[in-house]
Amino acid sequence: MIYITTYPITQRINPMRKPLLTTAAVAAMITLPLAVAAWADMMPELSYEPPPWKSGATIVTLNKDDGTLRVSGNGPMDDYDAYDLRHPGNRAPWHIPGVYYRVINAVAPITAAVFEEGVTHIGDWAFSAEHDLRSVTIPASVSSIGKNAFWNNHDLKSITVAADNTHYCSVDGVLFNKDKTVLILYPGGIEDSAYAIPNNVTIIGRNAFYGARVKSVTISNGVTSIEKQAFSFCQRLTSITIPGNVKTIGEDAFADCPDLVSVTIEDGETAIEDGAFYGCTGLTSVSIGNGAKRIGKKAFLGCRSLMSVTIGSGAATIDDDAFRLCEKLTSVTIGNGVTHIGAGVFSRCKNLTSVTLPKSVNHIGEFAFAECDGLMSIKVFGNVRYIGESAFAGCDNLATVTIPSGVTEIKHKMFFGCRNLKTVTIPKSVTYIGSYAFMGCPSLTSVILQNPRPPEVDSYAFIADNWNPVNMNWSRTDLYVPISGFFAYRASDTWRVFGSVKPVGVTRFALCLLATVLMLSAAVFVAIKRLRKLS
Fold first, then answer.
1. Which residues constitute the domain of residue 516?
2. Fewer beta carbons within 10 angstroms: which end of the chain, N or C?
3. Is the pTM for the entire model greater than 0.70?
């Protein structure tokens, strides 16, 4: 799947430009016919060969009157490529895109596919995207059905398999392997609102329910694998509960199911693969039970209605962009066991206000919480060893940050543009602060450093205003340092630009005593200098 982020056109139109828009609309109306003609000229020429067609060891004929396509012969059909209007490649010769039907009178839409006894193999992609196809009849001789042979047939209502076929069977129009352990295809045109997967099924095959009209699916406890794109584009599916016996939820398995509201994944060692629930724009809640192995890249990306996520204990990895652009997400609960928070995992979750990461987390990736405008607090424990670049960039409401004690470097732009950040505590382990780490943090008033040796600092780490190296006035920011490193910070060209350098870990009395000693030392130094002049 290609992941695309789109934005409403209203975000890009200036309402003050109505005359310009009107002119543009009129111009579009005038030029549209010309554009269509130009498009037609650019389209590849359609070399249409009328039936019958030869396909491997079979002959394919089409009855123009009723739209029945018949495959006969002894042996396998050829395999074909996925059809692409711009790059037809090795396409099935009987597949004619709808745009051409009106100009080719020799062909009719295919409404039924009948395979006669003797055919042994139905080719890859042979009948994909035949949107008028309503029925398929498979004889006993067919021993293999190629990849995506009947993919994306929205109106397909039934598949009938001969009872004596030793490889396949059908039940109520649904295609299975012979022993009914693999559900191969649930026809997209079936109008039933609910379907219960039989108990002996262990695998829901690739694209099995792709584009199906079903609203509710009950997954039996025997299922162990939901394969790639198994439920993609199920426009009416509203909720799903996945039993703990399921070990794999495949790539894009439930992607682009806009009416899917809730997902429950029960306790079990389940791996949620990349893009599994990508673009489920109606999804509001997700509950992932204990023991989940991983949450893959972009697993819930773009679920714009998602408000709460609960991840049980045991999940080891939340991969890159897993919850990015979940703009209504307000609550996240992550159980102990998660060790890796990938790049961009919660970026642009604008309504997320607080996050507590478990003690098991040791890695926070680049941009992990970037542009979480509502984030006010985040609790991170000391086991974290790595926080990536721009991890908290653009978190406008973040006020207080304590960096974990295991982190050794504050990376490039880590807190870039955190305009309300007031206090940051930097542990003893930090030895380097990277470029623009605190750029655009004009509210920063307290920096607490626990390392008695001043960390190395990039010259642009503390620029107050974005891209304005002249404005480096930190006179209102106090620097709190260990007493043992007080003089080292005072002597540092980098750190002495702050408003004041104050030692910590000493009592008020000791602080007054230190000030007195410093004043006396200065007075003695001046006196000695004068005596030398007199002598």
1. 505-535
2. C
3. yes
